[in-house]
Amino acid sequence: MGDIWEGLRAAAWLLISFDADLYEITLRSLRVTVSALFISCLIAMPLGALLVLRRFWARRFVIAMLNALMGLPPVVVGLVVYLMLSRSGPFGVLNLLFTPTAMIIAQVVIITPLIASITHQALRDLWSEYHDLLISLNTSLGQRVRTLLWDGRRNLLTAALAGFGRAIGEVGAIMVVGGNIDHATRVLTTAIALETGKGDFAMALGLGMVLIGLAVTVNLTIHWLTGTERAGRW
Amino acid sequence: MIRRIFTTLAAIFVFATPSISEELKLAVTTSFHNSGLSDILLPALFEDTGIEAQLLVVGTGQALRLGQAGDVDAILVHSRAAEDAFIAAGFATHRREIMYNDFVLIGPAADPAQAGQAHNVTEALWAVSSGAAPFVSRGDDSGTHKREASLWENAGIQPETADWYRATGSGMGAALNTAAGIDAYILSDRASWLNFGNKAGLLLVFEGDEALFNQYAYLPINPELHPHAKSDLAAQLENWLTSERAQSLIDAYEIDGEKLFTFNATR
Interface pTM (ipTM) of the complex? Predict the structure, then answer.
């Protein structure tokens, strides 16, 4: 219990004293995760919509795979991305290992199946409502995808926030591909792992509080900006 | 609205890549970093040479793998046999000894196995093997783990199957946390132990045997094997690490009045 109290105090002190390192790693956490989330959404949301609209022979298989990959172990993703980007690997010449870009790649792999699955789930229900209308209007595939994505945007927001949550708290993959290099690839989660290793639990917990606070702030901000849960809008 | 949020965020985050100065990637053992010595040396290195050494803090086994793959430009490790094999395989051009410290046996303050009364490390390990308290092993192929394995072998004990032997497969700090949690014995390098923040009920129970000597060496990666390796920066770093400036910094570094490392490079 004493350690938890110390952690709260450490978190408060870090915030009040405008600790430069803290702001640096917090911003890097945000930068990596938001970039990964943005790229993932670009891939996963149209993919989820296509899986609703298109009927092809491997559809069921692809959906089952996406559902299974939602539980992809991050440390395995990290290892595979490491082997790909390593100097001895196929993409070694790109010199991306131990950079934020490598961390973004790993996180995209981790959260894309999650976002695609939730998107597919949400849009399938919407499609059953819109099916007759969109078919009778003789819309093209592109128009249908756009309509579903736009009208299902609130559910897609949930998908994106789930992806954000999984990515911002992830440590296994980015530790392997980022290397936790100070001032280069250190983010909140890897810094927490480092401080725990040093036995400095107060600092580790303090950083943890900052991480939780960050996730809450981002979620609240997005809900506030998009005006959910207001009178008359469900 | 959502679209606008997305485009703004994308503009801010995706395209904001930092510029890069003279950087060198150095894989180091956890003790070099956990002891706090790197926080003293790296700023001084940057001041003197303009080199920004980016540390990858890993175990010796993983450091050697990173060097072998060419993912780092040089490594700083502490496991003589593995280093010699690394050079023999042509992955590094040579090996330069930088500094040393020693390993210490940590255990519960009450010392239930009476390891503290041993005259040498072999006797201490015999005492530990009585099983009066668990023993936590790094179990991660690090330099410390390799040394521990060879000490057990010298003592004629095969601990892997014993029920008091707990292999954690984690770094020095995490293993120390485990030992603190279950009141166990553990072999640690002195620097990591002194700088460890969660000592709980643990104390240093045995030290001072020659077999516990711990030499740190610097190995630059062979540029013939990995042409992209920054061998000129690695050579500059080697010169600096063996300079008088580095010597005074290493020898002066203390925690709680105890000296952690002793410089012993030959110029």
Answer: 0.77
